[in-house]
Amino acid sequence: MAIQRPKGTQDLLPGVVEQWQGLEEQIRKICKEYGYQEIRTPMFEATELFQRGVGETTDIVNKEMYTFLDKGDRSITLRPEGTASVCRAYVENKLYGGPQPVKLYYIGPMFRYERPQSGRFRQFHQFGVEVLGADKPMVDAEVITLVWDLYSRLGLKGLEVHVNSVGCPTCRPEHKQKLQEFLEPHKEQLCKDCQSRFEKNPLRILDCKNSSCQEITQGAPTTLDVLCEDCAGHFAELKRLLTAAEVVYKVNPRLVRGLDYYRKTAFEVLVEDIGAQSAICGGGRYDGLVQEVGGPQTPGIGFAMGMERVLAALKLSQEHQDEDKKEFLMLVALGEKAQSEGFAIISRLRKKGLPVSIDLLGRSLKAQLKAADRVQAKYAGILGEEELSKGIIILRNLRLGEQEELTLKEFEEQVLKQYKEDGNQ
Ligand code: HAM
To answer: Which residues are annotated as a binding site for L-histidine?
Structure first.
């Protein structure tokens, strides 16, 4: 039997690789403009880095890591994400000793043992940025603006930026307690995963996809209800700056990220249409992580975006745009009289909002039909002197090659009806 690639991985063949290179080029360009420098860390690390960094109660560490013992009996893990590695590199290379903040970016493969489905892979690629050594809300605003700017340059449509504040070690204990009190009476009805989250990390219950857990958590206290003064001020300033930068965002108090290191700001960018896996970017502030991996107390914030998902979303918006460019009907009129009658018909249809056009060059029948083909019109209305004298017009379905003769009134009614049936109005 022929050997196949492992489940959840992809071969990127010529033709597709060029799209990746195009995206990488845009990423490098914008990073340069915003003053971010590239960092490349190993694809595998000591397992402990992710246990400590990403967190023992996360799905990533509990279920999804590619962990193995190497020949020297060291526990090694293929990196499931880039933030912990960047913090380790910051400490190990004493980058905290140089000018701050340190603004870094990376592009590369990550590995998670997840159930593969559309948009979810076991080897996937992230572009991520991390800013270390700066704690002001303007840094949070800068990284969110960077990704927003990148997506608008790429022409991505239908995006939603969700922001939240998940608090800090000062205010989170109060939230934890309130949430536990709220959930206590329903504890038995929570799913198995959430029952085990109840003690250690009840915040993650707000994020559970299980419908009965979602019902139970309706109206549960959110972190926004209990933010301490510092976190509340930080969040208010971030919102002000995002508005000033014209980033369109939504406050989502239920946004809980799947990694343990977040404090204060958490955010995601979601895109419509690409199916269940709609988060194309996720990030937030992690002011305790550098210390957690053995460095000095250093604030940090960043995000990572899934390149496969961004490319899928781009392909979809491209298809929508191509669809938008298509004409519904081209009116092919031959001879002066037919042209002026045709122009009147087109004007009436346009008033009703239909994407229709008429030849403006007085070309031959053949040339006009060719033009209709070029704009991918679905229908052509053909009106010559002969049809005009009989008071009729030909409606031709260019996709099916069928046609019928109709009176001018019937023609307009039929075109409108067809347009509506195509789901346009
Ligand atoms: P994350 O939310 O786990 O965050 O992943 C970020 C993005 O990577 C997701 O929004 C998604 O687009 C993509 N992604 C994640 N898992 C998969 C998968 N199995 N297949 C395809 N795409 C996937 C982090 O990784 C954090 N390190 C982000 C960060 C950086 N926070 C602060 N700095």
So the answer is: 81-83, 112, 126, 130, 257, 261-262
In a domain, 196, yes or no: no
Is 9 contained in some domain? no
Domain co-membership, 295 together with 381: no
Residue that has been written with the tokens 């709609």 in this structure: 278
Collapsing DSSP to helix, strand or coil, 285 comes out as: strand
Please report, to the nearest 10 degrees, the dihedral formed by the alpha carbons of residues 335, 338, 343, 346 taken in order: -120
For residues 87 and 132, is the Cβ–Cβ distance under 8 A? yes
CA dihedral (198, 203, 207, 209) in degrees, to 10, reads 0
Residue 51: inside a domain: yes
Q: Containing domain of residue 72, as a range?
A: 17-171+227-317
Tell me the per-residue pLDDT of 58-116, one tens digit each, with 9 for 90 and over: 889 989 999 999 999 999 999 999 999 999 999 999 999 999 999 999 999 999 999 99
Segments in the chain below pLDDT 70: 273-277, 323-325, 423-425
Residue-level pLDDT at 267 = 98
Distance CA 198, CA 53 (A): 21
* Structural contact between residues 89 and 41, judged by C-beta atoms closer than 8 angstroms: yes
137 and 240 inside one domain: yes
Query: 15-70 pLDDT, tens per residue?
Result: 999 999 999 999 999 999 999 999 999 999 999 999 999 988 888 998 999 999 99
Is the Cβ atom of 266 under 6 angstroms away from ligand 1? no
Centroid of ligand 1 to alpha carbon of 420 (angstroms): 41
CA of residue 136 to ligand 1 center, whole Å: 24
Choice from 160, 309, 311, 314 to test ligand 1 binding pocket (greatest atom count within 8 A of CB): 309
- CB distance 251 to 163 below 8 Å: yes
Domain limit, last residue, from 291, 317, 343 = 317
Calculate how far, in angstroms, residue 81's C-alpha sits from the geometric centre of ligand 1.
7
Per-residue tokens: 312: 């899928």
pTM, rounded to two decimals: 0.80
- Whether residue 267 lies inside any domain: the answer is yes
| Count of structural domains within the chain | 2
Q: Does residue 61 have its Cβ closer than 6 Å to ligand 1?
A: no
Same domain (yes/no): 306, 331: no
Give the DSSP letter string of 226-254: T--HHHHHHHHHHHHHHHHTT--EEE-TT
C-alpha 134 to ligand 1 mean position (Å): 22
CATH code for position 352 = 3.40.50.800
